[in-house]
Amino acid sequence: MRVKKKSRHRKAVKFYATCFGFREPYKVLIDGTFVHHLLTQRLLPADEALRDLLSASRTPALYTSKCILAELRRLGKSHADAFDAASLLATTKCEHEKVVSAVSCVLSLVGDKNPEHFFVATQDAELREKLREIPGAPVMYGLKNSLFIEQPSVQQRKFAQLDEEKRLNMDISEYKKLLKAASEGKAADNENGSGGEQRERPISSLVKNALGVAEKSKFKKNRPKGPNPLSCKKKKPKPQSSLVQNQGAKVDGESKRKRVRKRKKNHKDNKQVQTAD
Ligand SMILES: [Zn+2]
């Protein structure tokens, strides 16, 4: 079980690394609910627990924000330990002069494209749901004394299947349409059929092989694609079947002799060659 869980986590991390450019040391944005969970379940030290979860070779960097800390402080005594622990983490800079709720702050930090490549660790189910709709936003959470990385959502997978150019040039209405189609579980192919839009085509063709191909191409072997054309040349003229072997041998013998002659000429042993003939 444990091994299986770990490989699922590895796959998820690999997905975000391959499709969204996540690189070590990973950054984890931790909200108050998650800090509280880490403390109550004694999943400490947290950075080691998260490094293990990510199967990372380097310890991930853990962040909170000013707004997350403010919310923890507001929760008072019940979350005093969590506030103290969270205060020791690095604070990522958010744009809020006046503090906002932790959820709003996390969402604004992640934005549309999660440019900082945060893994977001939270116990807040609503926040997790919202994050699933953002393309490159991986989510972590805890269940009792186990930590999990959510598998990439349908929307995230769909988005990853687009090629890079399409992603960059996509306007917001197109993007929302895609998310809607993904969350309704519709294949992009169906839309193509009814709408007849050629532009949508790349989605459907990429759907089939987007992730698999990206991973497989790394391990593609360099095999010769056919017989060596140089070795085939001599077989071309096909005489009668019974003679094939003998003639072949003859040709071989002649060519060998010629080769010898050439070599000897190169060595300026002309006289010997002439006598041999
Ligand atoms: Zn904020």
Commentary on this structure:
Residues 218-236 form the UTP23 sensor motif region domain. It is found in: Nucleus, Nucleolus. Residues 256-268 have a biased composition (Basic residues). Involved in rRNA-processing and ribosome biogenesis. The protein is of the alpha/beta class and 277 residues long. The chain is built from 15 helices and six strands. Mean pLDDT is 78; it is low at 186-218 and 242-256. The protein has three domains: 2-151, 5'-nuclease (Rossmann fold), CATH 3.40.50; 156-218, no CATH class; 231-276, no CATH class. The chain has a six-stranded mixed sheet with strand order 3-2-1-4-5-6, sandwiched between helices. It is 56% helix and 9% strand. The longest helix is centred in the last third of the chain and has 23 residues, at 244-266. The N and C termini lie far apart (79 Å). The chain binds zinc ion. Residues 65-67, 94, 96, 100, 105 line the site of zinc ion. Zinc ion binds at residues 65-67, 94, 96, 100, 105.
Keywords:
single chain; alpha/beta; globular; 9% strand; PIN-like_dom_sf; ribosome biogenesis; binds zinc ion; 56% helix; Fcf1/UTP23; UTP23_sensor; Rossmann fold; 277 residues; six-stranded mixed beta sheet; 3 domains
